[in-house]
């Protein structure tokens, strides 16, 4: 019997409801009640309080500047309250809520046990029937179930108290409870049902596949609410999902002959039964034509378990159905194997971000869409960061052949901790048990961690946790936690390294400190780690906000943070550049993710990676790290097809010692294929070199033959003379074409620079001295001020890469910029191929460059090369600008265009174009500035 529909609710923020007997008819009448719909949350239905200065959030705010900085003062008023650190609900409520409705028990249920099931409650629930308290539950991961007893036929009053305050300190930022992501909602969002059960019923069915014997071992727990000796049978049958209606084998029947006593009665809340029970084990043979489940062929079996038992002369009958797949996940050396075949984990986080509702969907269709989008980007796993998804997510993943890493709802850090005897220690075990009981049969459930990034005596506590659950349920791999610790008990290590940027590296991180190449891998990590490594939360590369996205927030959560950032941009006079900033920073983000993923795929024996993330993370100060928005929609600068060229089961790889060449150099690379498909390939691997027009300049065959599963083989070195006499943007393309017509391609941008032939221009003064530049420009000369980047005033950390995570949450780690933007059609870039955004050729110019803060200059001055500031600051920055000073013309450049030009072909070419521009007819600055405006840009010594 479904209980979905109209209920009444009364809010109880001070917790007086139980004392005032709100569960009674008189108490309910005394409370202020209103209509509400379940399933659903209070907040999405506008029940609660408007958000304002007194809102008591769930989640830490690391950057407290919102509460103190004058820039945020207009957003701290009750009338215009807008927080910058996460999406903001239009309604907020934190406390107890009393839901109530009448239920009618049909005559045929009279005398039977009635069980109430509530899917996905947030957080603690307590139930009364009429005036009798039934009990409480507090799971964040599985359904709350209550044995209501033997109800008489007719009408009864059902009361449900839900409290969304912190019940156990699982960590203030855990995605299971925090306003950083899903919001701290109150209600019930899944199925609400009453079921009438027999006195002897099936409580739990566990199915363990056994590929070696082509069979499944089925364990059946039986619950009873009557005492006495019982006899009966358990019948198990299985049907292939793709061959419905016909059992794959004859049903297997096992006798039940046991005393239903309290010894077996522990933990029977799984179906609301609380007395005694029994247990039956049997083996279901699936025959020689057994179909296995994996990401390529997700064959599913539907299992029916039927119980018939007689106790004290009465017959009891119950049926339970479940789904499983013939799947085994194991460790082979330093890699994970599914059904004996090595795989490579390509995952992303799902952090419970659902802006329209503020809570996760409980329907299969919604989860199937998410999985389709993730797979289109070449991924094969979703990691649920410090939360466990609803049943629908597992069902969708089973059907689609997608892997899941599930976690208990714990991020015991930021004040919380495990292993210190706090209540969270017990809660971790409780929730793990419930997760495994509820979802353990799903073949998609391949990896499990206790939660995220713990504090406390984590290694000791979690070593025991891993061993305990691996022994209890070996159907998946276990690791202590996402992040750390890396302990010997782990099946695999889910650790923060290796990656292209580690916390705190700032401008010393690889992409900022080392010239671009594609040879780096993590072989040293594999050699010193005996277990598979699945690197934790890699990427975290930011992009500028897409302000056009704000119109999509039509539900509970509003993008008020974007409204604040848009105001900052407008105040800086740059609101017309919002789309330009989005595109330019997005392309830099995209190429950073490409190198991130390929570095992992290049590494022989590596276990895999988990991105943070494919989608934006709206919390923790606003972390816009996704090529997708929080709705799993593409952003304007990226497509799934483009992303999947470098991320997928089969990816061609080129090991390039460098990307920058001078004309006459030889392009040298090694070919490699990361192939983790269903079977080895009979294929041809080819290469070609193209220009930007698509013309093929050279091509060839690397190898023909079998491409094995894995990524250990180097397929040979290729050398290509670069004989072009002019500067060109080139593209190296590798292709794998199999004999059955399938193909995969990947590509890498290269640049070849000819030696400049333009003579040094006449009439241009070049100096590194600010005062000389101002004096001579004031006198009417044309001046290039090639300033020392170290003399640039301000604290802007300019690097090659975009911002990591976001500057608010990382306490202002450098770089502080999101790449550069410029107009590639500007005459300055004649002869210097560029696409308007940071690309690999800009590394040479941006390395050790300085970013000038131009806020004091006229707003009509737009830099020719403009670093994009983080959205929190929205400063107008420049590394190259032009202006009139006095009677003369001035160009100021804070990129190094002078030193070691014989070894720096990019700087040499850029300098040549810059000098040609300032000495040519197109150089006509339109903005006049005061000499003191220039002086303020630099630190005088």
Structural summary, described in words:
The structure is a single chain. With 941 residues, the chain is α+β, with helices and mostly antiparallel strands. Among the domains are: 5-192, Galactose-binding domain-like (Jelly Rolls, Sandwich); 198-324, Immunoglobulins (Immunoglobulin-like, Sandwich); 764-935, no CATH class. It is built from 15 helices and 47 strands. The strands form 13 sheets. A seven-stranded parallel sheet has the order 28-27-26-25-24-31-29, with helices on one face. Strands 2-1-5-11-8-9 form a six-stranded antiparallel sheet, with no helix packed on it. Strands 33-39-38-35-36 form a five-stranded mixed sheet. Helix 3 links the parallel strand 24 and strand 25 (381-384). Helix 3 crosses helix 4 (391-400). The longest helix has 24 residues, at 578-601. The radius of gyration is 32 Å and the shape is globular. It catalyses: Hydrolysis of terminal non-reducing beta-D-galactose residues in beta-D-galactosides. It is an enzyme of class 3 (hydrolase). Residues 60-197 form the Glycosyl hydrolases family 2 sugar binding domain.
